[in-house]
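Ticket reopened. Same input as before:
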Amino acid sequence: MARRTILALGGHEFSRKLGNEAIRDYILALAPGPKPRICLLPTASGDPEDQITAFRASLGGLRCELSHLSLFRLEHEAVNLAPYLRAQDLIYVGGGSMVNLLAIWRAHGIDEILRDCWSHGVVLVGQSAGAMCWFDWGVTRSAGAARLVAGLGLVPGILSVHYHRDPERRRTLLDAVAERHIPGHGIDDGAGVIIRGRALTASVSARADAAAWRVTPDGRGRARETRLEAVQLPSPRPAIDEAPAAVIEMRSLRAARLAASRGAWSRR
Amino acid sequence: MRQIVTFGGGGFSMEAGNPLLDQFVLDLTGKQRPKVCFLPSASGDADHYIVRFYRHFSGEQCVPSHLSLFRRVKAPVDPREHLLDQDLIYVGGGSINSLLGVWAAHGIDEILHECWEKGVILCGVSAGSLCWFREAVSTFHGPAQRIEGLGFLPWSNTVHYSSEPPRREALFSWLGEGMTPAYAADDGAALHFVGEDVAQVVASRPGARAYRVELRHGHVVTTQLATRYLGDEAFVPLLRPVTMLEA
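Engineering reply: fixed in the latest deploy. New output:
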């Protein structure tokens, strides 16, 4: 059996912000061969043009061959899905709605095709919904409130993404681990975990404050979080993550106004 | 009264500048300012499609809204409550497989059935037409596919009928294999179902037609249905159904 590899990212986009390029370079390093074929599956967001454009802009010109598969626009090009996906070296699954992602994949038979790709050594990478889909369970907001949804089950346990940015997801994961006695992982934006076969073997981070966390039952009805030691990914150039001073000022003004108006409401 | 209107093609997304089919479904509600909800699921909730819906279904003639199933975090509305409150639900085109997959995942199929029973008018174009039937012929993914729809209407359906010959060939061969009798519509033609049966056929173009296609004594029989052109009150439609025998 070929080496099965999955990279699950807690939050990543194809932009120059917040270590995104460091993660992009790591993805490229994971892809085998001198000029690997990399295919984007933007299904979870409904195949939006901006996601496809950003993917092409970020990876274009680097040592890879790019393509994307829009299941919502297949009428323009008839694609034989199974051989097409099997011929890739790496498949990147974008974020969005995990529930929709899995429903659409099942409607097109892509869940089985990806399982087959995985067992034949195609590297599977995904962020947010595109990361959780490989696990037994994901903590999704597909219907608004955070809740557990079954994934494809290639990787055991529960995964929660955007871990410290979204306290409701974190709470949901902690409760689920405590109640169900299933191990879980939480991954921050800008961090990821590598799964070889079915075992988590490494964790990577592109930001000092980003990490992956193992969540286990503590034996007393609660859950315990352990921060995983991460390989720090070097940034190819300074990230653009600082908003201009004017924007920061505007945001703080708006926040103050919002707080004031909330106060006014509660006094009524 | 349970009503479904299925467009073979047309409406704001396919016939820019021709509002006849959209006006027809709005009028069908009998309301001065009907509540209309757009379901763009088959397109993956494409922004440009949603924008075009709001441009054509303006606040002057209706109370427009849309339900996005890809971005429910940003619009925490209860889909059931919202859909049951509508006068008209308008389903956009795109991928029928994806549409049915996403609806089932969010329980929208059951909600729509409830809406239909309650009297909310359901309509749609392309994939938004195919979805209501027991079976459908889709060519969205290249070669023709036989799709199982929601089954509110106990027939088969195909769309863009005269403009896409491969659909006809596929329909004929599947009818021979026991597919349910079909209603097929051209671009610009719409079938208006009351209950499970066709009440009338209307068209936004003088030449657009709808057909009943079925197997009789081993032959595929196509019956052209009398069609009312919506653009001209004085236009006399073809009232004599023309039966075409196919060997």
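The helical segments of chain B are 20-28, 47-56, 79-84, 96-106, 108-118, 127-130, 165-176. Chain B touches chain A at residues 42-47, 69-73, 76, 94-95, 97-98, 100-102, 104-106, 139-143 (CB under 8 Å). Please confirm and we'll close it.
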